[in-house]
Amino acid sequence: MIDLVQLRREPEFVKASLARRGVSTLTMDEIEALDVEHRRLLQETESLRAEVNELSRQVGEAHRNKDVATAQELTAKSRVVGDLERQASEASESTGNALREMLLMIPNLPAPDVPDGLDDSDNVELRRWWVGMDEGLDAPTYADCQRVPHWETGAELGILDLESGAKLAGSMFPLLRGAGARLQRALGFFALDRHLDAYEEIQPPTLALTETMMSTGHLPKSVDDMYSIARDGLWAIPTAEVPLTSMRRGEILDEAELPIRLTAQTSCFRREAGAAGRDTRGLLRVHEFVKVELFNYCTPAQADAAFADVLARAEALLQALGLTYRVLLLCTGDLGTSSARTFDLEVFSPGVDRWLEVSSVSWFGDFQARRANVRFRTADGSIELVHTVNGSALAWPRIWAALVETYRQPDGSVILPDVLAPYMGGETTISTRPV
RNA sequence: GGAGGGAUGACAGAGCGGCCGAAUGUACCGGUCUUGAAAACCGGCGUGGGCUUGCCCACCGUGGGUUCAAAUCCCACUCCCUCCGCCA
């Protein structure tokens, strides 16, 4: 949620920032008007309530003095004022609700260095990395045997079974088997082990309350992209960011315990309602996938370092796996609702000949913390909202795809990078002939 | 799923419908005393909101209700504990 106090203090700046992301100034004018009206009604309500409180106090006093006549007179008076108070507070409440509903739909202010743009074509590529680049290799090259899409290799090797997944849950629910399943497990173990030097490992629930989904900004705005378990009032999480952000919801943290760094590998569920029919082949876009998430609660002063840390960890994994990737700075048009600044990491998939998003590293400022009401007490005793930072490291199905394509051999087998050997029982070759 | 008990400030723990935002203790912060520390004593010590910055309003698990007035009475729900049933 944006800061209403900031909107009052510097309305022009807030409106200009939001206009960059397509929020109409008229909408913001409406919010401002509602805010003014709400405060007017609030004052009216509170002064009437103060009057009722005072009259009630006098009633009590009269009773103690056995002054029945005065007590009755004051009770009658208080009843009248109480009716007025009820009317005022109903008006105030409905105005407040209208204001809150609008505010919940307003996205975060983009950071000043976020470029303007309409969609992903306006994102800015910051850098690329490929194996051999550090040794002077100008560009990665790919042999014909690497130009085979992972769904073909996956079927050939019996490690990706899209038909079975579709039979169980419908299309875009893949099923991994054998070495393919083990590869995804290996990736998760590999990544988590590398994060445990600084991050606490969490296994959160993968269903969440509406309130939990509100805190990160996934509801109400992105309701069509979420799976719901209506009967129990629960939602399937689209990312571990959802439970991790709410883990300390409503708490006042000690500055000394910040940054709090959490990591979790969970299933992530996405209806992909807006992307129906696009990029649906193989593992390019799926409804359920496994991802390791890195998360930080931090002070505003720590936010830059936290962001850099998450990004560095995601990049380090990609480099360790030997995958070509690029780093993008998202433009205003491609930024998620809650984010002030996001870097996307995309791996190159030689078999499909496309870049695939495998991580999104975001700084949310205090936007999510305001919704989740997570604050910290500074050394001098004042209380401030924390900042939240998170990023994937990494989302596995697309990494799986890039690995199977990048490491495909002329004989059709796949030889995985050595870093995964300890997690694959020492066996890095996947071939049709069982070993 | 069934039966019972509980939910109050950082923690423990009081609280006859009115003078209760809330006793008391611990913890914490400041001071006196002390060479220093401890002890003792004194003072402070929740969060949010509004505006006329001095006041007002809200908050005792959550939501509703009764009342001039609710931490206190009534209803529903949530969570925790104990027991029974079922079960990975």
Would you give an account of this structure?
By secondary structure, the chain is an alpha+beta fold. The protein has two domains: 4-103, Orthogonal Bundle (Helix Hairpins), CATH 1.10.287.40; 120-430, 2-Layer Sandwich (BirA Bifunctional Protein, domain 2). It is built from twelve helices and 16 strands. It has helices at 4-9, 11-19, 25-64, 68-105, 150-157, 162-169, 179-195, 210-216, 241-246, 303-320, 367-372, 396-406; strands at residues 124-129, 200-202, 207-209, 228-229, 234-236, 252-254, 260-269, 288-298, 325-329, 341-349, 354-363, 375-377, 383-385, 387-395, 414-415, 429-430. It has an eight-stranded mixed β-sheet. Strands 3-5-4 form a three-stranded antiparallel β-sheet. Strand 12 and strand 13 form a beta hairpin. Helix 3 packs antiparallel against helix 4 and helix 5 packs across helix 12. The chain is elongated and about 100 Å long. The protein starts with a helix and ends in a 5-residue tail after the last strand. The chain binds one RNA strand of 88 nucleotides through residues 39, 42-43, 45-47, 49-50, 52-53, 55-61, 63-64, 71-72, 74-79, 81-82, 252, 381, 383.
Q: Average pLDDT across residues?
A: 95
The side-by-side strand order for the widest beta sheet comes to 1-9-10-11-14-8-7-2
Query: How many distinct helices?
Result: 12
Helix content: 40-55%
Order of helices and strands: HHHHEHHHEEHEEHEEEHEEEHEEEHEE
Instruction: Please write the CATH class name of the largest domain.
Output: Alpha Beta
- The name CATH uses for the topology of the largest domain is BirA Bifunctional Protein, domain 2
The count of β-strands is: 16
Detail the poorly predicted runs. none
